[in-house]
Specification:
The chain is an alpha/beta fold. Helix content is 40%, strand content 22%. The chain is built from 15 helices and 23 strands. β6 (126-130) and β7 (135-142) form a beta hairpin.
Length: 477
Amino acid sequence: MRQHDTLFIGGEWVAPAGTGVIDVISPHTEEVVGRVPDGTPADMDRAVAAARAAFDHGPWPRMTFAERAAVIGRLADIYAAKQGEMAALITEEMGSPITFSNLAQTPQPLGMLQFYAEYGQTFAQEEERPGLFGPTTVRREPVGVVAAIVPWNVPQFVSMTKIAPALLAGCTIVLKPAPETPLDSYMFADMITEAGIPAGVLNIVPAGREAGEHLVSHPDVDKVAFTGSTAAGRRIAAICGEQLKRVSLELGGKSAAIILDDADLPASMGMLAIASLMNNGQACVAQTRILASRNRYDEVVEAVAAMVSSQPVGDPSDPATGIGPLVAKRQQERVEGYIKIGMDEGAKVVVGGLSRPMDRGWYVAPTVFAGATNEMRIAREEIFGPVLAVIPFEDEADALRIANDSEYGLCGTVWTADTDHGMDIARQVRTGTYGVNCLMLEANVPFGGYKASGLGRELGPEGLSAYLEYKTIARLG
């Protein structure tokens, strides 16, 4: 078992203020695999004080962008050497299939570090613009102390969407990992130290909701960056709005995959399997509404059912596993509750249902519903598990209406033989990220959502802007 008795604050491993602990439980074995301190509001105060001191008096915000980029580059090199070990740890603590961990859980965070390390080499802190009476300087400065609050499903990915640009900007950070997945952050803290990032620039305090809300409300926090549920995002936005504090929110999704009549179903299903079932369905970008025309509806249902049935369910550390367990018993019960809701609403279970595929571990049967409508709860609410609803549409205009008929707008896809036409479809769906015959998240382009899927953007140059303040200096002569 991985035992940690300290918190990473001010560049040191320090004793927590309280005696509470967080047990990290394997979703596969239901056994304790790790234990860390349960951070308290007092621990958050200490972490914020360390970040504040590092920002107000330390060297990090006073370095040039190129100097910080060089340090981030060293961090990327260290991360690259340990990404396999990190991937295995994430699989152990939250049940992500090891193939997905090796495909996305660590390579994508590494890509973010590499992007910002390169981007920062030539990023200008100041630029001159002509004014009516003389030149004007536009200066980019770090926003200050950042509270980064992240979920359990892709812990390193989501942490890095905040840490990498915040570091380049010159901010200092307090990271609150989710109680379900704190172990990876301890490994990352060692990398921070090895890379030579100054003390207090990154502080890590695993904790629950009470300490997290204390962190969000702290008067010395200048910006909050949160990824999680829409309900929690609304609460955080309310706190930040009251304090006029900068905030970015990456929240839920209920993405629609539009399968046009000209789509090559066998070719599409391979990529759609990843797009809809990645990380055991525990992904905000998962394509869980499958829209098919009535002309090919039965054919699409059959293809989706075959695709889901072909995914081996089992031990997430086994490379042959396609779908592993859910992160916690409460999540297992939540997803099974939605399967029952779908059955009660009149949708037909084609694959899966309420029979659990494993006697031990927090597994659910990957499930496909046919005969679903967009008005059903299984089509409107984020389930966060391997549950897909195949919804019929009459024509292309109807497909677009259904895709846009959601409180969310995070992601979406279209599947077609005509990629130019797919681009036309993409331009009409109100989501922040869209894919034509694919689902891709890239480090150099913005990621975020419309509507209840969040506020602001992460990644790319736009993600760096979220951690900068812009100062205008006008002068005569």
